[in-house]
């Protein structure tokens, strides 16, 4: 991508990445096209944007005439961004409030249970990437929508949201866990990549989000909770209302997904630091080359690597590494063919 894009353009691009609906996306793309510097260096990019815009306009036109896609389950949410994370839990724990606090989405929040009836996606920014959160109706054995565990199953990771003000906190979380396990979801603490699942099960990294830490006595209750639950799932105390713990939560969700961000640079040029490649933890130089271009993959000889995290690599900046070298989050890589 050309390096001389203006802050105006980059802001418009950010708005595009954060857009959650078709009309929002179209508006953001139109804005990008309006403010993009018009010269030879951006010709290709302008072409790309125009193509994307035409495609989205067509989709919108199509959506007007067609009803809901036939055969597609109602709970299905198209994945976008670096990963999809489901917000699950008992009624009234603050799932919708959390989505509101972490994204531009505006699901209904109510002080009565069962306010949320359909899945609502929203894009959550974490530093330079976007992660998709999906707000769901509650997991409730009696009154819940039956498809909710399936929506969790389809996501890349799950947050189980609990209410620190609830009297039956432990019962509540056990009910959520039991409902998900009944749907053959093997809940795992983060990093349990090598976990062997029973046949028919899917492994799902899970984080317990203990919401409403701003309530009286909530902090003591959280301490007691983590003591009892220690070692089972990681847990984080937050408040959707005051914003406490939400920055830590963004980072924890990123860690939960087991992904890394990798930036590429061309020899003699500055690195492309605005749009990282999102890869699975454990990805190698070869995996990166495969993502960049099949020609590069075919002719890859070695790479040079710069770390942006002090202490992560035991090598010097710009050191040569081979194709099997494992990448770390925020590495800058120069691929040599
Ligand atoms: N005290 C407090 N109340 C909260 C917090 N987050 C959400 N709530 C309240 O909890 C109730 C349920 O919220 P909602 O987001 O609709 O829960 P959901 O059913 O899990 O989606 C609403 O009255 C919210 O205002 C919080 O951090 N602190
Ligand atoms: Mg809700």
What would you note in describing this structure?
There is one protein chain. The chain is of the alpha/beta class. The chain folds into three domains: 7-65, no CATH class; 84-257, P-loop containing nucleotide triphosphate hydrolases (Rossmann fold, 3-Layer(aba) Sandwich), CATH 3.40.50; 259-336, Ubiquitin-like (UB roll), CATH 3.10.20. The protein contains ten helices and twelve strands. The chain has helices at residues 7-18, 22-35, 43-65, 95-102, 148-154, 169-182, 218-229, 246-257, 285-292, 294-299, and strands at residues 84-89, 120-126, 129-135, 157-163, 185-188, 202-211, 235-237, 259-265, 277-280, 302-306, 319-321, 331-336. Strands 1, 2, 3, 4, 5, 6 and 7 form a seven-stranded mixed beta sheet that branches. Strands 9-8-12-10-11 form a five-stranded mixed beta sheet. The longest helix has 23 residues, at 43-65. The radius of gyration is 22 Å and the shape is globular. Guanosine-5'-diphosphate binds at residues 91-97, 109-111, 115-116, 138, 211-212, 214-215, 239-241. Guanosine-5'-diphosphate is lined by residues 91-97, 109-111, 115-116, 138, 211-212, 214-215, 239-241.
Bound heterogens, unique? guanosine-5'-diphosphate, magnesium ion
CATH class placement of the largest domain: Alpha Beta
- Global morphology: globular
Strand content: 15-25%
CATH superfamily of the largest domain: P-loop containing nucleotide triphosphate hydrolases
Could you please say which CATH topology of the largest domain applies here? Rossmann fold
Straight-line distance between termini: 20 Å
Helix content: 25-40%
Pairing-aware structural class of the strands and helices?
alpha/beta
């Amino acid at each position: 991508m050309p390096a001389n894009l203006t802050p105006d353009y980059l802001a418009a691009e950010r708005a595009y990445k954060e857009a959650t609906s078709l009309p929002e996306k179209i508006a953001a793309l139109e804005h990008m096209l309006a403010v993009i510097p018009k010269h030879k260096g951006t010709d290709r990019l302008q072409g790309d944007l125009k193509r994307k815009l035409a495609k989205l306009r067509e989709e919108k036109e199509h959506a007007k005439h067609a009803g809901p896609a036939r055969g597609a389950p109602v709970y299905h949410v198209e994945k976008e961004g670096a990963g999809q994370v489901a917000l699950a839990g008992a009624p009234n724990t603050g799932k919708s409030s959390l989505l509101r606090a972490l994204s531009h989405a505006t699901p209904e929040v109510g002080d009565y249970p069962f306010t949320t009836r359909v899945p609502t996606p929203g894009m959550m920014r974490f530093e330079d990437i976007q992660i998709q959160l999906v707000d769901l109706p509650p997991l409730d054995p009696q009154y819940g929508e039956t498809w909710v565990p399936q929506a969790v199953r389809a996501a890349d990771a799950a947050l189980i949201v609990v209410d620190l003000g609830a009297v039956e906190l432990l019962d509540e979380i056990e009910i959520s866990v039991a409902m998900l396990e009944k749907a053959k979801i093997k809940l795992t603490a983060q990093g349990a990549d090598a976990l062997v699942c029973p046949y028919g099960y899917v492994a799902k990294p899970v984080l317990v989000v203990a919401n409403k830490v701003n309530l009286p006595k909530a902090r003591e209750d959280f301490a007691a909770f983590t003591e009892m639950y220690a070692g089972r799932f990681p847990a984080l105390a937050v408040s959707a209302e005051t914003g406490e713990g939400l920055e830590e939560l963004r980072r924890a969700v990123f860690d939960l997904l087991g992904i890394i961000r990798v930036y590429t640079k061309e020899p003699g040029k500055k690195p492309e630091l605005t749009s990282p490649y999102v890869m699975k933890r454990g990805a190698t130089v070869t995996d990166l080359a495969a993502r960049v271009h099949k020609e590069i993959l075919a002719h890859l000889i070695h790479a040079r690597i710069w770390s942006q995290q002090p202490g992560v690599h035991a090598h010097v900046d710009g050191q040569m590494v081979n194709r099997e070298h494992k990448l770390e989050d925020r590495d800058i890589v120069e691929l040599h063919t």
